[in-house]
Design brief:
single chain; alpha/beta; 2 domains; two-stranded antiparallel ribbon; 15 helices; 10 strands; 50% helix; elongated
Length: 385
């Protein structure tokens, strides 16, 4: 009887956790409300760092050149690419006088590559607002008009977006819809957007920041050796009393984050420990992920094999709820087929393995690489307050 009670408590707890996650997501939808631009709109400079991005940079540049924003400069930073990235950017610059292409010329040893590229691009930019975007993003024509008008209307100093993540391949559809939504639980937008709450975060795929604020916090130079440049920049901005805001940008921006398991693994390792604030919290996240996403399906199988009917009923109801829940998330947030949610127990295992790999690498002092270069700034102290 005690075992049945514990099983019921476990199931109800998971129902509650997932319900909370869903409620946070629903409240997040539609946060980027529409407003008119000021009578005299400020100038905007987009800054896009690109290292070996021949696969993505053409789509990114196309989206930016089609913006309907009236005062726009586009700065693309060729970060020592070894592929056709530089040639593609040169062709765009020849056709559009608003585009400026610069080359980093190699990074200093005490900088991470992305920070150096962003900083280099910022020094070449002239806008009242700086908009940092990744090369794997695509901007809808009204992206800058919507975001600048929103930021000006609400006196926001740094605006970041959660875009629509495109998932086309098998591994993307298995892992990303499982791994990304919990970030909203770790960093609830309601708390991040509260100026009196110490919690802060940003998504480096889109950061719109006032130039005056960027200079005041020393921009990317102030976080030059941090593993996660976006979160660290948000901490500096918020810590110096400026207003940050995270909004849902599904209809203004899309991202093809990764295309295969190797890319997913490498990108997730870089973020695993830093996002949660230390290896202890990261280990707890890995265990919690298994308890939430993998154990229910395993228990259902075990109870079915041993013929424990009450356990089968409880776990079957929980698993059905989880499939419906994750299917809804995949459809609404990722525009992916909802039936792909049936792989969620396997996705839970993979996610935990990636997190565990990150813990081991940090603990052993092993290499963590991105774009072929070592990443500086492995965490030693908690970053999340």
């Amino acid at each position: 009887m005690i075992g049945l009670i514990l099983l019921a408590v476990y199931a109800l707890t998971l129902f509650g956790v997932m319900g909370w996650m869903g409620l946070i997501g629903l409240r997040f939808r539609g946060t980027l409300t529409e407003h008119p631009l000021p009578d005299e709109p400020p100038s905007v400079s987009t800054v896009v760092p690109a290292r070996n991005e021949e696969r993505n940079i053409g789509r990114c540049a196309t989206g930016l050149t089609h913006q309907d924003y009236p005062y726009l400069q586009m700065v693309f930073v060729d970060d020592d690419s070894e592929d056709a990235t530089g040639d593609i950017l040169a062709a765009f610059a020849a056709r559009d006088g608003r585009i400026k292409v610069i080359n980093t010329g190699g990074k200093p040893d005490d900088w991470n590559g992305k920070q150096w590229a962003c900083w280099s691009g910022a020094q070449a930019a002239s806008g009242d607002w700086l908009c940092f975007m990744d090369a794997d993003t695509y901007a809808e024509p009204h992206l800058l008009t919507r975001t600048v008008a929103f930021a000006e209307e609400h006196n926001i100093d740094m605006l970041t977006l959660q875009p629509w993540y495109e998932t086309r391949g098998l591994w993307e559809r298995i892992i990303l819809p499982q791994a990304l939504p919990p970030i909203l639980m770790v960093f609830p937008p309601g708390r991040v957007n509260d100026p009196d709450d110490p919690l802060s975060m940003a998504n480096g795929q889109f950061i719109l920041i006032r130039r005056s604020v960027y200079d005041a916090v020393d921009g990317h130079r102030g976080v030059k050796a941090e593993m996660m440049d976006d979160f660290s920049l948000a901490e500096r901005v918020h810590g110096q009393g400026y207003q940050i805001f995270v909004a849902e940008g599904f209809d203004v921006m899309r991202v093809r984050l990764y295309t295969n398991l190797r890319e997913i693994w490498a990108g997730a390792i870089k973020a695993a420990v830093q996002l949660t604030g230390g290896w202890q919290a990261t280990l707890a996240l890995a265990i919690g992920n298994l308890l939430l996403n993998t154990l229910p399906a395993l228990l259902l199988i075990v109870f079915a094999v041993v013929g424990y009917t009450p356990g089968v009923i409880i776990m079957a109801l929980l698993v059905i709820w989880q499939v419906v829940f994750y299917g809804t998330i995949r459809l609404m947030a990722f525009r992916a087929p909802p039936w792909t949610a049936v792989v969620y127990p396997f996705a839970g295992i993979l996610s935990s393995l990636i997190i565990a790999d990150g813990i081991v690498r940090v603990a052993r002092g092993g290499e963590i690489k991105w774009k072929g270069r070592d990443v500086l700034g492995r965490p030693t102290l908690p970053t999340r307050k």
